[in-house]
Amino acid sequence: MFSESNLTGGIMRMNNRVWVAADFSNPIKALALVRRLHGLVGGFKVGLEVITSIAVSLLSAMTTDEAMIKLREWKELFNAIGPNLIWDGKFDDIPNTVKAAVAALGPLSPAYCTVHASAGIEALKVAVANRGDTGVIGVTVLTSINEQECVSIFGGQPGEKVRQFARILLAVGAQAIVCSPQELRILKDEGFVQLRKFTPGIRPAFMSPGGDDQSRTMTPAEAIREGAYGLIVGRPITQPPDSVGTPERAVELIVEEIESV
Q: Residue 32's CB: how many other CB atoms inside 10 A?
């Protein structure tokens, strides 16, 4: 599993706080990004877009040769990512299904996989019990959900629900938690030090506020200051504004923000 003990020097440590969402339906496009950023960031996350695209591209292939070409392309992507991978399947099902899904990741052995904390304590228990060398990250309230929607779905405010989910994750022995940066202070103040805190919803200073589906956001520096272990960053790096130019430059600017803390 990815470990801070593998890092040397302040700049390397800050670079490794950044995990890039390499979520593309095209493996060649994803591979190009990974090759550009490999060694500049801590690791990569692949989510439902990639996971679904793998299955569909293989199952919809017209010939065995076409399927093998697609398989090689996806295989090359994961070889390039290496062990510092978050498999963001967001498993959310009955305990037996969650158990089987987590156990199926064994041969790939990603650094982390994600399981919805709302799946319930039994599902979380079997995920942890069958994780092998893979850390379990508990997903709490998605960063796209605003306060009103959180009350409608979960019956409480985001801070209240993240606190509740964190207690459950701690009780079952999960390794990490993912929440919006706006709940980080709650987790820090209540001493959830055993849980590594990953947060999406990161919007660097070079991004214009608003304009996308993220509701509860912070800058990289703010999130690190509030106790984030890893920043999961997608569009600010994969689709940087013209004023930034390249993914590499976006990473550099984000690291500069982190170093200011």
A: 16
Show Cβ contacts of residue 162 under 8 Å, excluding neighbours closer than 6 positions: 140, 141, 177, 179, 180, 183, 186, 187
**What is the value of pTM for the model shown?**
0.90
- Residue 113: predicted pLDDT: 98
Q: Which residues, in sequence order, are CB contacts of 30 under 8 Å at separation 6+?
A: 22, 23, 24, 46, 50, 77
Tokens of 115: 């399981």
CB 114 within 8 A of CB 91: yes
Active-site entry in 29, 90, 99, 161: 90
What is the CATH superfamily name and number for domain 4-259? Aldolase class I (3.20.20.70)
Q: Which two tokens stand for residue 117?
A: 């904390």
Tell me, what amino acid is at 252?
Answer: E
Residue 99 designated active-site = no
Local structure of 138: helix, strand or coil? strand
Tokens standing for 26? 């095209």
pLDDT given at position 5 = 40
| Structure tokens that stand for 129 in this block | 């019990």
Instruction: With a cut of 50, list the residues of the chain below it in pLDDT.
Output: 1-12
Closest listed residue to residue 168, CA positions, set 220, 102, 123: 123
pLDDT at 224: 93
Alpha-carbon gap, residue 157 to 73, rounded angstroms: 43
pLDDT, position 184: 92
